[in-house]
Amino acid sequence: MGPAPSAAQLLELKICDPAMGSGAFLVEACRHLADHVVAAWTRDGTAEQLAARVPDLATHARRLVAQRCLYGVDKNPFAVELARMSLWLVTLARDLPFTFVDHALRHGDSLVGLSLDQIRAFHWAPTAQQDLFAAHIRQTLDDTIDLRQQILDLADAADTRAKARLLDDATTFTRRARDLADLCLGAFFSEARPAAREKERLRRLALAEAWLRDDDVDAEAEVRRLAAEFRHEVPAFHWMLELPEVFYAERPDPLAGGKPGVAWMDAFVGNPPFAGKNGISDAGGPHYIDWLKTVHEGAHGNADLSAHFFRRAADLLGPHGTLGLIATNTIGQGDTRATALAPLIARGGTIYDATDSLPWPGEAAVTVSVAHVAIGEPRTTPGPTASAAGWCPPSTPGCGASRSARRPSRWRPTAARPTRARSCWAWASR
User: Fold this and answer.
1) What does the buried/exposed string (b/e) look like for 68-86 if buried means 16 or more CB atoms within 10 Å of the residue's CB?
2) Does 52 or 173 have the greater pLDDT score?
3) Is the C or the N end of the chain the one with fewer CB within 10 Å?
């Protein structure tokens, strides 16, 4: 985006926390990005014009950012409510209603869901699409994208009821496609062996086809029942159905000079949950690890759960973007490293900043790691943050990535003890 992006460019960015909890990372992203928007307004003279009609430029910028740029997902519905309140507070304006963020803060499991190609094929390992399903998905997206885009276009308006109506209509349009996706996923999670899963998938495929063709009056009720049964066990989140305005082909990519056809999420931030093999199975059920290994090629069953958030985020970035996530301190070791960082480096990503050992600032006796990865355009044109962190391009001798190994932590009031210097490249290759 260059050293001095316009406010319009900045407000096209899409930033997501895939395990948002109470929304702390989204609040900080809101503040940070809004400051840059205000700076852009100041550069081009817009600030003086806006000051005549808005009492506080910073608050106005935060409200625009919260509604147009920020997204969050969490499998805990109470966390979604807390995150909504957090964004309300950071964007609070005296004479305006609470900022509308219902379209962007969503309930669901970030790691379980189907892509459009998988839904079209009615298969978690798609080879060929089902024409009937493809036509339905295409119509669903045509109807839904326009409605959700209208919500973004109304970011500067105070009419929250109009935004809520648009969201309700968009949710109604996607219901059938969501049921199809959940029906398919239910086949995977209902059986333990591949052959049994495939048999159940084919049974459900025939049921779905009968429903879409109106060949069986009882098919719809059965599809709805099976989909609801699965959602009760696993709150799947089908990213491209839930947030189609982010992933549609015509969206201009702010990280690629506004070129359409390549934009997905532009950045991921957050502190995803940590869990070992037993913890993953206890929380997600007996087939959860099988699912993670199926969708993340080369993943290990012994990898920490946080590794899969790196993979999911990287898949949803598209060809350009960055991610910065807190991870278990085993992120650079063994199966967790092979599941998370190694595949990201193999696809051309650069770890431009990392801290391999950071004591948790609270009471918990936990040590974490922090990794920042850039893919595509941001990898080759680092901004101020990457430069300050000591970024070096992959062509630099001896540096496949770089790190701030002895950077004091901004999370603690006392000076941090130096962490042991370790090349980020070693994280991905050893």
Assistant:
1) bbbbbbbbeeebbebbbeb
2) 173
3) C
Q: For residue 394, name the pLDDT band (cuts at 50, 70, 90).
A: very low
Instruction: Give residue for tokens 């050893």.
Output: 430
CA distance 85 to 107: 15
Residue 396 confidence (pLDDT) = 33
Mean pLDDT (whole number) for 55-64: 94
Enumerate residues 6+ apart whose C-beta is below 8 A from 367: 329, 357, 358, 359, 360
Is 281:288 a contact under the CB 8 Å cutoff?
Answer: yes
Phi then psi dihedrals of residue 251, to 5 deg? -65, 125
For 429, the token pair is 């290759």
Give the integer Cα–Cα distance in Å for 378 and 265.
13
Q: Quick one: average pLDDT of 292-307? A: 93
What is the three-class DSSP state of 44?
helix
Alpha carbons 385 and 388: distance in angstroms, whole number: 5
Return the structure tokens found at 169: 């209509």
- Listing DSSP states for 362-428 in one string gives SSS--EEEEEEEEESHHHHS--HHHHHTT---TTSTT-SS---TTPPPTTSSSPPPPPPP--HHHHH
SS (HEC) of 124-173: CCCCCCCHHHHHHHHHHHHHHHHHHHHHHHCCCCCCHHHHHHHHHHHHHH
Torsions phi, psi of 65, nearest 5? Answer: -65, -45
109: which strand partners? 236
Three-state secondary structure call for residue 2: coil
